[in-house]
Each structure stands twice: as C-alpha cells, then as structure tokens.
C-alpha cells in the first residue's frame, strides 16, 4: 500500500547552559520520494560539542545533495556521513583547545524502503503500531554490560558511568558504525531518532504508545514535556526526529460516461 511520511523534529536545551544537540530533516533537492533525517549529540566542553554535532548535519546535508542512487548504495551514503564527519571533527582538535565528540544517527527513506546507521548512544527506534520492531544498540559501557547480562535496564539508568561511550565521532579510534534496514515498511510504522536526553526517561512501550496515538508534532510535545517533568531540574539537552508513515487516500473513482 502506498504511503506518505508525516514528520517532526524538535530540540530542547533541558537544564544545560548550552544546546549541543543537533537534528535535521532534508528532502533530496532533485529526487522526489527521498528523505534524510540526522541527529547528533555533541560533547566536548564549551561550544566544542555543538561544533561537532553541527559537522554531522553539514556532512549529512552535503552528501545527500550529491547522492546518486544509480551509483551509490544507501548503506554507503549513511556510512560516508559518519566517517567523514568523524574526520572533520577529529581535525578540529588540532586547531582548538577543545576535545569535540559527537554521536550520530542517520536515517534514509528511499523508494519505499528505510535505511539507517548510527554511532554512539543516540538511538533509532522502529515501531509498527505501538509495538517495537527494532532499536539500535548503544555503543556505551552500560550498553555493553547489558548485552553481556551483567546489568539490567533499570540499573543502567542509574549507573555512575552511564555516560561513558565506547565509540563516537572525533575519538582516536575509527567510529563503530552499525546499520539497519526495513525493506517493506508499512503505513503505521514510525521511526524515532533521539538523544539520550530523551530516551532515558521512557520505556519502549511508552514511546511506542505515544507515537502510535498522536501525530508527530503532538507526540514530540508530549514526550518533551514528560521528559522535562521527569528530569526534575537536571535534564540534559534533548532532541528527536519522528517519521511516521501514513496511508495515501485512495483515488476517487473516475465517472463512467453514459451514452
């Protein structure tokens, strides 16, 4: 069944002095039916994190503008955004006193198929109705401990080293890039990109129910409001992008001429 996409992007500074998250949504300038969403959570001292996250958006937009599906695969596009942003961020360390780093999540909708890639602990969720189909794996210390069965989800939220990343953009090591895809998305599917300033306050079930019940803008407003309440004055920057697939209306029947 054909579908269209309803979308929303949102940012909130939380209780931080500076907004170091970045999020963007870009249609392809020449090809219809293609959409790129990107989210980055910057780290690295005053203005350093913001600069790092901004580089992710710049690289995503530039690479998408020159993307030619006939000669380049979706996976290579997404990987190039993360790899090239990593190199640019890394180079800035030699020209400033900062130590900038960033996470990255990049999502591509192309010809009715969905592709994504990420590095760090910003997440990509894929819901079908209110049910979770997939969620990206956090490249963090607590994420690794959870995968090894040494930490449960509840304890991970309060672990003293929950902000330690094992991979990110701008570090000495090449970024760990994990990719996913959905070859047959359906109307009713929702893709959520978000930073840890948002997902830390919600279960998968609560996110899925909210995104299923509400259109993207109303869902974003509710999630940000609840995250702010639950942060109790100590909230991080938060950002999100919502891509909700909705059915296209059936074309009206063509009247039959009568002789």
UniProtKB/TrEMBL annotation:
A Pfam family the protein falls into: PP2C_2
Record domain PPM-type phosphatase: where: 6-245
CDD domains xref list: PP2Cc
InterPro entries on file: PPM-type-like_dom_sf (IPR036457), PPM-type_phosphatase-like_dom (IPR001932)
Entry superkingdom: Bacteria
PROSITE patterns: PPM_2 (PS51746)
Name of the protein in its database record: Protein serine/threonine phosphatase PrpC
């Amino acid at each position: 069944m054909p579908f269209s996409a309803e979308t929303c992007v949102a940012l909130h500074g939380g209780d931080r002095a500076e907004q170091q998250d970045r999020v963007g949504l870009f249609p392809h300038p020449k090809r219809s039916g293609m959409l790129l969403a990107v989210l980055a959570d910057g780290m690295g001292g005053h203005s350093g994190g913001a600069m790092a996250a901004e580089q992710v958006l710049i690289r995503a937009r530039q690479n998408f503008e020159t993307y030619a599906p006939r000669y380049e695969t979706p996976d290579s596009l997404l990987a190039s955004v993360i790899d090239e942003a990593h190199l640019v961020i890394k180079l800035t360390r030699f020209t400033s006193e900062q130590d900038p780093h960033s996470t990255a999540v990049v999502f591509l909708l192309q010809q009715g198929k969905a592709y994504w890639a990420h590095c760090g602990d910003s997440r990509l969720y894929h819901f079908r109705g209110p049910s979770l189909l997939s969620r990206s794996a956090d490249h963090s210390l607590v994420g690794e401990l959870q995968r090894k069965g040494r930490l449960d989800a509840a304890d991970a939220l309060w672990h003293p080293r929950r902000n330690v990343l094992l991979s990110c953009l701008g570090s000495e090591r090449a970024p760990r890039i994990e990719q996913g895809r959905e070859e047959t998305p359906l109307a009713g599917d929702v893709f959520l990109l978000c930073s840890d300033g948002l997902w830390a306050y919600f279960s998968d079930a609560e996110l899925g129910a909210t995104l299923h019940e509400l259109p993207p803008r109303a869902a974003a407003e509710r999630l940000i409001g609840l995250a702010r309440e639950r942060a109790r004055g100590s909230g991080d920057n938060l950002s999100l992008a919502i891509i909700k697939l909705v059915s296209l209306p059936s074309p009206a029947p063509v009247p039959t001429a009568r002789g």
